[in-house]
Amino acid sequence: MTSILNPLLVIGVCTHVFHIHCIEEWIETNDPPTCPKDRTSWAVKS
Q1: Model-level pTM?
Q2: How far apart (Å, rounded) are the C-alpha atoms in residues 25 and 31?
Q3: Which terminus in the chain has less CB density within 10 A, N or C?
């Protein structure tokens, strides 16, 4: 389940908010996926 503020923003479990297209690109290029701001393991807040 994803937590979306509006169709373009996503909240991570770390509480940082990102534009969906930006975070998708970041996740695709980083393994393991991390938050771009604090490098915690990335997951969408549910």
Answers
A1: 0.75
A2: 12
A3: N
Structure tokens at 27: 């996740």
- Angstrom CA distances, 7 to 13, 19, 20, stand at 18, 9, 8
Query: What residue spans of the chain are helical by DSSP H?
Result: 20-29
Is the pLDDT confidence value at 3 over 80? no
Give pairs for 16-25: CB < 8 Å, separation 24+.
Answer: none
Q: Which two tokens stand for residue 42?
A: 């990335």
CA gap 10, 33 in Å, rounded: 15
Q: How many CB atoms lie within 10 A of CB 12?
A: 22
